[in-house]
Amino acid sequence: MLYISDMVKLNDEQQIRQLANLELLARQVVEGFITGLHQSPFHGFSSEFTEHRLYNNGESIKNIDWKLLARTEKLFVKQFEEETNLRCQLVLDTSSSMNFPNKGINKLQYSIYAIASLMYLFKKQRDAFGLTLFSDKIDWISGVKSTTSHLFYLYAELEKAYLNPKENTVTNITDVLHHVAQEVHQRSMIIIFSDMLENNMNPEKLTALFAAIQHLKYNKHEVIIFNVNDKHKEFDLGFDNRPHHFIDMESGDEVKVHPGKIRESYRTSLAQYRHELELKCAQYRIDIIDAPIQEGYNNLLKSYLIKRNKMI
Fold this sequence. Notes:
Layout: H1 13-37, E1 52-54, H2 66-72, E2 76-78, E3 87-93, H3 107-124, E4 128-134, E5 138-141, H4 148-163, H5 173-183, E6 189-194, H6 203-218, E7 222-229, H7 231-235, E8 244-247, E9 254-257, H8 259-283, E10 287-292, H9 298-311
Parallel strand pairs: 3-4, 3-6, 6-7, 7-10
Antiparallel strand pairs: 1-2, 4-5, 8-9
Helix pairs in contact: 1-3, 1-4, 3-4, 5-6
């Protein structure tokens, strides 16, 4: 049964069905991932982590799960619905470059499915979560809650972003992250989904971006960047060796070029930019995770769990 917040108006039967499909996809991704963890080096994360946490010395023993102690020889405490372990703010880039490619699943759609899956996982773990949508500015930002109604409230906003992709809209991730740093007052995990193309090969913009990320770190937030990309076309310039007409999805600028003539110099410049980006992230202790749209969601969920495990 779906419990929808009063803030979400769902009068359209098709919209309700689409929301249910988003929830179903997220559930399948997460439950398949959890099942896989039983056979992986991360077997310490299991379906039980949604209902238990490790016992901390000195706290009350009334909620210790003694049966689980007998099976695992470890002390776990039963966790109840009202408990919140962690606060997470998901920040989604909805600028026009995220609509690439125009065939098959694009970067925006991939990110929406990934975020829906993460939210489902947050809900299972009693973690509180919120959502921010941005392009050249913050377009929408929610509060942070861990309820089922809140989950479907955010699913409805993701559905709107999915159905109404933006055209000729640029990115301004720097100003947006400064805004997020000001809006999110309690220590949180900030999870950013973006192709990070605004600052591509521009040293001044890259410096400004990391000043914004420093703002987040100064406020004690942990930051993960999921760098969403079409690896074959964007990194390798994997187009046929014939003249192509390229149109910038954000600015509308056009250029005609033969990929074979620029492929090596393009790859070199992009690799240099990505190397600098990764070095800066390492300097500020920010996790930047490659997120190719051709791959699934397990690596994203695993990266979140590893980061979460370090924070609690």
